[in-house]
Structure formats: structure tokens, C-alpha cells
Specification:
Strand order of the largest sheet of chain A: 3-7-8-14-11-10-9
Shape of chain A: globular
Number of strands of chain A: 27
Radius of gyration of chain A: 26 Å
Oligomer: homodimer
Number of helices of chain A: 14
CATH topology of the largest domain in chain A: BirA Bifunctional Protein, domain 2
Helix content of chain A: 25-40%
CATH class of the largest domain in chain A: Alpha Beta
Strand content of chain A: 25-35%
CATH architecture of the largest domain in chain A: 2-Layer Sandwich
CATH superfamily of the largest domain in chain A: Bira Bifunctional Protein, Domain 2
Number of domains of chain A: 3
Largest interface: A-B, 65 and 64 residues
């Protein structure tokens, strides 16, 4: 039974040995994606793309229920559009792909060279506030046209210097919502409402517990008035942002001239918001749930729910085993797991001893082995991905069919609970600067082991203090919790008076 | 009742007056899309994007049923990849957007200029054979890895000089399927199978009748061995391609080194295919069905099925009318129209006389007016988009609910039948060169009226003849019908012997 009888793990190295390399190996072993020959760009393979499709479908329904409509805007942004909002262009100029020519022609040496210089360079969208703002300025003229609630699913490009698959890639897929409102409070409500939707996605679907809060000024989206964020703890105890929602005030409305005539016939600027999540969420799923045997997929968005593995040792058994397998598949597929039909894979590759391990590495929630002996007993041999690879049990076929939904729900719940326990175990209230520095300093500098976590510590609100901690420890304020208790204390950096704790962590 | 009592049309100019301008005005009046400030790129507005989403969902299900899986590949293609297949690069070099820099920085005059020159220019994908081929070369090593059946939904860029919204835009959305096979015949079967799926989409969903056939050599996809196509007749009697599927032989496999070890342990090249449809299909819907009052949407993929327009003339009626409207909406939405729930809009804008006309222009299949008098009779006042704007009838509410699905089916069928009659009326067997030239020559050269159609004429198979007709008349061979009868005749261009007729037409 392959690795089944050995103590070794399916992924080498393990998390504790080399976390960064473990991550790459999980991505490879699970067949989610691969690096492409184009610098920093990835190829999302079918197993990974199915995950993204499921995330998309869940979010899309939630968006549409709140009145949001999908649309599509150009990939290219004229340079002058980006320049309209000073902080915004400052934030993106350093990492944008620029289109300068519109054809290739034969050069002197016979190879093709760029030709047909564009009058104005075009930037491949890193985000679309400015190009969508341009449309909004034409779509809005009266208060009756508001609110505008628009979302687009698309690719964006940010020319990152150091890339890591799913977490930081030059091109990634995302959705970006953009809304315009007549009333400030309505725009702020929308900003928070979308953050709540992301929280629901993270916790109820991805099984990733998140903290919800606001970013400090230095961590805001370029040009935003307020940026709200979800922060999750990965298994190396670093934070990963799993959704952001921005209240843009009237800044982008001014930049793009989104004006409307109010009921009092005055011409005023609209209030806008934007919000997005990306394929980075797949990185969050991996780093929250995967273990030393590979990926572990939350059933609510798993690429597939169940794999059936017929075991045929003698040709004579083939018909019986395959008939049993197909009839089981049919009955499973006829059921719903929440809003989606149960998705079933049949792995009938011949004479492949490592089948079970392939599916463990791919993180499928439930594995079912079907051999002549199981069939004789009208039972199936079931392994769950939230349990050890050898912890398999025989279950009567009919009972398995009846309880599959409950089993998937249990797996989903176990995954969330484990992640929550992990986060709570690694979240500390810290009051002294010495403890704070010790918390974020690896004990062995040569080979930095996993350390730190979320520190709830006091901050005076001063950017210099934030900057000092970032320089000293590479630790940043992940978020300011909205419901943090008022509590007097001393700033962890300068010792000045502070009225509240914020969440500090190392981050992706 | 606004334009309702006048003889004039909602769209100016009409089709017969100025077809090209009529098209632009239909797009504008229906709120499908708009031109963007970025040359040749469009903004797809919610009403148009919903149409694309419906097309996507229908196709995606059909693809997946045949074993195709979705994935995602990089937007950027290194120049050297494109160069690997000579005909392919020749076909796309003249119209590609080239990324040459990866940041913007402040220039001498303070404005931002492109900086950070890339080592190798990157082309924004015009199509992805070469970049996907690169992945395939890594994914395939044994015959057991084949077939590979992959599709991606994405944006592509072809820098067109003359653009027309939906029909020819610099950026457009599409799906591109790419498959690799061990056996030549299997690849050819797949090529034709996907064309059949496109035919089903066109005829059963878009209500667009199509001819199915093969392209002549000069009209093939750059690098393909065979290109198969669907051709539809627009209302100006020109042809529009509504799907193509390419058998690529081993040409792209050689270019990308897609090799596998056969069962006999020989290393051989795979056989590949590619196939795609794009947002151009929305242009086909408009030009097949729209009339002088605007868009007409086929119910099977309509952005929405029914609009309810409450009519409230006295404030006292409001509650009754709105309650009636919402309960009707609820009952309609509870039903399925084929695979999709019935989509219902409620237009409760106040005191807006042109409401009905707005929805006629948007092409919604069914309009329902609900006033106090209708409610008193427990009936609704219904207009169908496949009938005249004033041809409305009172229907008992419960009967309307019971028959809505049948009504939508009738509309769908009427639309297809009308389009088919139109095509047949404008398809002619032509045998003399004189008749052929007369068929494709407008009677008034000053203001070319709508003329021509599909000519079934003999062609000897010689490219010179094809070229001559193209030069003289801007007429091309749209396709060679696979099931054309063997029939001796004389080539319409040179008079030489020919064994079959092909379809000639002017085209988009």
C-alpha cells in the first residue's frame, strides 16, 4: 500500500523543516498550479481552477443578492487616467506592465521587434478604479442614477519583484467591486457590507477564521480614505490578508469627475467604494489547512468531494467492481451538498498502487476504496482527509450514501475548528517591549524556525512607532479591531499612552 | 404613451436607411455596451455582460459534459514562443499589443514615462496555442496522459485598425479550447464535436441559424491544417462567423515539443486542436434579431425574461399595485425556463412614460403592465418582443403564470424561424459570372443599399480565383459545406471544371 505503512510523509520537506519549500511542494503535489515561463505568472491547472470557479460562484451569488451587477471594463488603462489620483499612481507606478507598441515587425537581423509606437503608453490594469471611474462619470448624472453597484471578474497585473505562486504573482485573477453613492453613510455601509460577505466566504466556505478590522494609514490601499481588511493566521503564524474593502470618500470621484445633480439641483461629487479578493485566497486555503501529506480542501468549495477507487486485482472482478462503482457514483451525484451537487471522481487507472496517496495529496475530502470483498459485504472502505491517512473504516454502502452530507459537514467544521484553535493558541496579549521583541524573534537565527503569531499590543497611533517596529522586526499592524475594548496602556514602541490594542504580526 | 401612438421607430436611423449606424444605435439604446476611451476597447455594461454570462454557462456545461476541464494560462506570451510556428506568428504579428517595460517613473518634464525595460518583449495573448502548448509539453509524457482536454475563459487582444463594438474590438472576451491526442482521428473527431456544440449554442440558444463547413486554405486560422466554421447571415445579408474549430495536425505539437511515449515506447508528436467563440456572438444576436425598435433577445440566453411595470397613477393605489407586482414576481421566479430560473425585473421608476419603450429597446422577451384596472380583473397586460409594440393583450394572472414557459418557447421558436426564412430567401444558387457579380453589386453605388446574400456557386479550388473575387467584389468563400452534393459545374471565376458549390458572401 505504498507509503501507507511507512512513517514518512507524502510531502518533503515537512512544514516544520522548511515551511516555504513545503508550500511549493504542496502546490506541486496537489496539481493546483505551476510556475510559467513568463516571469512571475502562473498556470492555474484544472484542480486549482475548479477551486477558483467555486469561490467565484459563491461570491457572485452573494454579490447579486445585494443588488450588485457584473460588467467588464478594458484591460488597458491610459497613463493619464492613472495619473489623475496622486496617491493611487504613486502606489502602482513601480510595478506596472506597460504596453508601448501595437505590432511586431522584422528587424535588421531578421528577428521580430516591437513596432508601431502608441501615442500614449497603456498600463495593463493593476486595479480598475480609474478606468471604471471614467465610465461612472458618464453613467451618473442625477441622484436617481445612484447607487451604481458594479463588479467585474478579471485578470490584473502587478509586476512584483519577488513572486510566490498564488500569494504574490505578476498576473492574478480577482473580482473588483466598484460602487458610487449619493450619500456618504451609504457608501460606508456598502464598504462594510462587502467585508461581511468576504468574512462569510472565508469562515463558512474556506473554513479560514479571520479577524475583521481597519488598516492603519500606512497600510491603506493607495488613494483610499479607509481600508478594511480580513486577516487570517497561516500555519507559520504569519498573517495573510483574505479580502479588503475600501471607502474611497470623494477622492476618486474628484479624480474621475463622478458628479451628480442632487434632489436640490446642486452638482455634487459621489462617494465611492471598491473591494476585492483574488486567487490569493487559494494560498490562504493551502496555508491554513494543508499538512505534511499535502492539500486539505474544505468541502464547501472543494474542487471535488469524493473519489471512488475501484480495486481490481483479477480481470474477472472488473465488471462487478465497475458496476458497483458507477452505481455508487450515480447515487452520490444525485444529492446536493448545500447549493452544489456532490462532485465525484472515479479513478480507474489500472495497477496504480499510489492512487490513494495521489488523492490525499490533492486534498479531496473523502476517499472510497471499492474491492470485491467490500462489494461482497455491500460496504465501502472510506478515508476522510481530516483524519490520518491510515484511519479508514468500512461503512455499509447505503449508510455511506445517507450520511455523506453529514460527513462533509463534519469535515468542514473540524477544519474550521482546528484553524481557530491554532490561531487562538498563537495569539498573545503582550504588554512589554521586551516580550514583544522576543515573540517576533526566531530563537535560531541561522535557520529561522516558525515563531511569533498575532500580538495584541498597545499602539499610540503614531506612524513613527509603526515604522520602527517594521524596520526592527518586519512586523506590521495587520488591523485595528473595530470592537476592541477601550483600555489604557502604553505604546509597545514608544511607551506613550495608548487607548487600545491593535493586531501586530509578520505578514505575507 | 410616448412613441406608442406614433408610426416612428424607436431606433433612428432604421436598418434600411443606414445599417451600420442602426447597429451602433441599437447597442446604445439597449444599454449592452459602450466604446471606451481606450482605442478599440469596449465597456460591456451589465445588460450585455449578463448575456455573456448566460452564453458562458451554457457552453461551459456542454464542454464539461464531454470531459473538458477549465484552466488558466498567462496573459503574456514571450515573443520567442509566438515565433515557434511560422504561419502563426505571421498571422498575428501585425496586430499585437507589446509590453516592453515594467514600471513608470518620473521623466525629465515631471510626467511619468515607461521604465524598466524587459529583457524580452511580451505579447498580450491574441490566442494561446503557444503558451498552452508550452504547458502541454510538460504535462504529456506517456500516451496515458492523453487526451488532454482543456479550456480557458479569458480576454485576448488583437490590435485591430478598424473596430466595431462586439464585432471587432481590440480586446474581447472568449473561450479557447485546446486539446492534445495520441491519435489523429480522435483529434479530428474532437474538432468536429466542438463545432457541433457551437452549432447547438447558435441554433438552440441564440436562435441563429448557421451553416456548418470548412474554410478554404486562405481563410484558415494561422497555422491550422483545417479550420471548420459556422456562418450565419446577418440582416444586411453579410456573413458572420459564429464559431471556429481548428484541427492543428502536429504543427503546433512540433512547435511546442508536445511529445509522448507511445504504447510501443516510441516518442511521437501529439495531435492538437483548438476552438473558440467570443463576445462577437453578441454582435450576431443583435444583427440577426434586432429590429427598428431595438434589441430582441432570445429567451434561452436573455439577460432577463420578464419585466413587470407597475402603473401607479394615484398614491392610494401604490400598496395594492406593488403587492400584486411582488407576488407575481415571486411566482414567476419560482419557475424554471429550461435550466435557468425565470429572471424577472421590476421597473418601479415613478412617472416615467417611456418605461415600456425602454424595455422594448433592451429586447426583453416579455413586458407586463400592472395597473389598478388589471388587478381588479385579476389579469395582467402583456406585450411580447416578437410582436409589434402595440400588440398587447390582457391575460388572467394565473393563466399567465401557467403559460409563461410556453410563451418564452414560442418566442424562441419564432425568432429562429424568422431568421431561417430570411436566410433562405437570401441564399441563391448562381451559375453565371454575370449573375454572380450582379448579386454582389449594390444598385446605387453612392449609397450602397443592403444587397447580396449567400451565393452557392461553383469554385474550381484555385486560390487565384478566390483572390480575384475578393479583389473585385470583397466577397469571400465563407465555407465549403461537408455534405454538398457532388455536382459538376464551372468555376464562377475562371470557368474551369468544378465538382462542388461553395458558399460565397460578403462578411464581417
Amino acid at each position: 500500500m505504498g507509503k501507507d505503512n511507512k512513517a514518512e510523509t507524502a510531502i518533503t520537506p515537512t512544514r516544520s523543516l522548511d515551511y516555504a519549500e513545503w508550500y511549493q511542494q504542496v502546490v506541486r503535489a496537489s496539481d493546483l498550479a505551476e510556475n510559467s515561463p513568463v516571469r512571475g505568472c502562473m498556470v492555474i491547472k484544472p484542480w486549482g481552477y475548479a477551486l477558483w470557479e467555486n469561490i467565484r460562484d459563491v461570491l457572485d451569488d452573494m454579490f447579486k443578492e445585494t443588488g450588485v451587477k457584473n460588467a467588464y471594463f478594458p484591460l488597458f488603462i491610459p497613463k493619464r487616467f492613472l495619473e489623475r489620483e496622486a496617491e493611487h499612481v504613486e502606489g502602482f507606478a513601480k510595478e506596472c506592465a506597460v504596453v508601448t507598441h501595437h505590432r511586431l515587425e522584422e528587424g535588421p537581423d531578421g528577428s521580430l521587434i516591437p513596432a508601431g509606437v502608441l501615442d500614449e503608453p497603456l498600463v495593463v490594469r493593476p486595479t480598475s478604479e480609474t478606468i471604471i471611474g471614467d465610465s461612472f462619470s458618464r453613467w451618473v448624472s442625477s441622484y436617481r442614477d445612484l447607487p451604481l453597484l458594479i463588479n467585474q471578474w478579471c485578470n490584473v497585473v502587478r509586476w512584483e519583484m519577488r513572486t510566490r505562486i498564488f500569494l504574490r504573482t505578476s498576473e492574478f485573477l480577482w473580482q473588483e467591486g466598484h460602487t458610487a453613492h449619493a450619500i456618504r453613510a451609504e457608501a460606508m455601509d456598502r464598504t462594510l457590507q462587502m467585508l461581511d460577505i468576504y468574512e462569510k466566504l472565508a469562515q463558512d466556505y474556506l473554513a479560514v477564521p479571520v479577524l475583521k478590522g481597519e488598516k492603519s494609514a500606512s497600510e491603506r490601499f493607495p488613494g483610499a480614505v479607509n481600508t478594511f481588511t480580513l486577516e487570517a493566521m497561516m500555519q507559520d503564524r504569519k498573517a495573510l490578508q483574505t479580502g479588503t474593502s475600501h471607502f474611497l470618500g470623494q477622492k476618486f470621484a474628484r479624480a474621475s469627475e463622478i458628479k451628480y445633480q442632487s434632489a436640490e439641483e446642486k452638482e455634487v461629487y459621489a462617494w465611492t467604494t471598491s473591494w476585492g479578493v483574488s486567487t490569493r485566497l487559494i494560498g490562504a486555503i493551502i496555508m491554513t489547512h494543508a499538512d505534511d501529506n499535502g492539500l486539505v480542501l474544505p468541502p464547501m468549495i472543494a474542487s471535488s468531494h469524493v473519489v471512488l477507487m475501484p480495486i481490481i486485482r483479477k480481470p474477472a472482478d472488473k465488471t462487478t467492481v465497475m458496476d458497483f462503482t458507477h452505481s455508487l457514483a450515480r447515487e452520490l451525484r444525485g444529492q446536493y451538498y448545500h447549493d452544489r451537487k456532490i462532485a465525484v471522481e472515479i479513478d480507474d487507472r489500472e495497477a496504480h498502487g499510489g492512487k490513494g496517496w495521489d488523492w490525499i495529496k490533492k486534498g479531496i475530502p473523502v476517499r472510497v476504496e471499492i474491492g470485491p470483498r467490500d462489494i461482497a459485504q455491500a460496504s465501502v472502505f472510506v478515508g476522510r482527509r481530516d483524519r490520518g491517512p491510515r484511519e479508514k473504516e468500512s461503512i455499509p454502502r447505503d449508510q455511506f450514501i445517507k450520511t455523506i452530507v453529514r460527513m462533509l459537514d463534519e469535515i468542514q467544521k473540524n477544519m474550521f475548528d482546528r484553524a481557530l484553535v491554532f490561531r487562538e493558541k498563537n495569539t498573545k496579549q503582550i504588554d512589554s517591549q521586551e516580550d514583544f521583541y522576543a515573540f517576533f524573534t526566531p530563537k535560531n537565527q541561522e535557520k529561522p524556525e516558525i515563531h511569533g503569531g498575532f500580538a495584541l499590543a498597545h499602539w499610540c497611533g503614531n506612524e513613527t512607532c509603526e515604522e520602527k517596529i517594521k524596520t526592527d522586526l518586519s512586523v506590521t499592524i495587520r488591523c485595528i479591531l473595530p470592537d476592541a475594548e477601550e483600555e489604557t496602556g502604553r505604546c509597545i514602541a514608544c511607551g506613550d499612552k495608548s487607548t487600545r490594542r491593535v493586531v501586530f504580526a509578520k505578514a505575507y
